[in-house]
Design a protein that fits this description.
Keywords: Metal-binding, Oxidoreductase, Zinc. Pfam families: ADH_N. It comes from Cryomyces antarcticus. InterPro entries: ADH-like_N (IPR013154), ADH_Zn_CS (IPR002328), CAD-like (IPR047109), GroES-like_sf (IPR011032). The chain is an alpha+beta fold and about 190 residues long. It has one domain: Quinone Oxidoreductase, Chain A, domain 1, CATH 3.90.180.10. It is built from three helices and nine strands; from the N terminus they run E-E-E-H-E-E-E-H-E-E-E-H. The strands form three sheets. It has a five-stranded antiparallel sheet with strand order 8-3-4-5-9. The longest helix is centred in the C-terminal third of the chain and has 20 residues. It is globular. The protein binds zinc ion (2 copies).
Amino acid sequence: MGYPETAEGFMVESQKNWQQFKKQEFKLKPFEDRDIDIAIDACGVCGSDVHSITGGWGEVPLPLCVGHEVIGRAIKVGKDVTTIKVGDRVGVGAQIGADLTCDNCKADQENYCPNSIDTYGAPYPDGTIAQGGYSSHMRAHEYFTFKIPDNIETSIAAPMLCAGLTTYSPLVRLGAGPGKKVAIVGM
Ligand SMILES: [Zn+2]
Ligand SMILES: [Zn+2]
């Protein structure tokens, strides 16, 4: 098959043999009107990837392709997408879906949405399992797809999509700024 029905990724088949990545094809979710298809250029490595494939956070659907600091080019956009054009360099972080209608979503707290979908290892409503960025392509909702400014190199931008964001967001929301003392704990 191949794209647009499937993508290829480096997948782990068992948490016991988590060091063994095998290049495999996987199914992409059905394309919807606010989806963007991304041809992936690069993906940062996050500690969550290791926890997921080693079983540190319990079982995961297998085979699994991890990676949620994804940078690539938009190669197809759904008819209702307004924020991204074909050819844009874009990024996707650790979350790829939410209902966007619940109270948490409406309060810009979509990471607490009861219908949140993680970028990898999570089922879409049709049963397709989301797969991560150590792969050829990703199909992502525009709400979770960000245009990357030209002046930020891909290798710098990628880690901002998870590690960077999880640090930056609380600093901004809690009003950190000049003169404030802050502490950041890595877990
Ligand atoms: Zn991460
Ligand atoms: Zn929601």
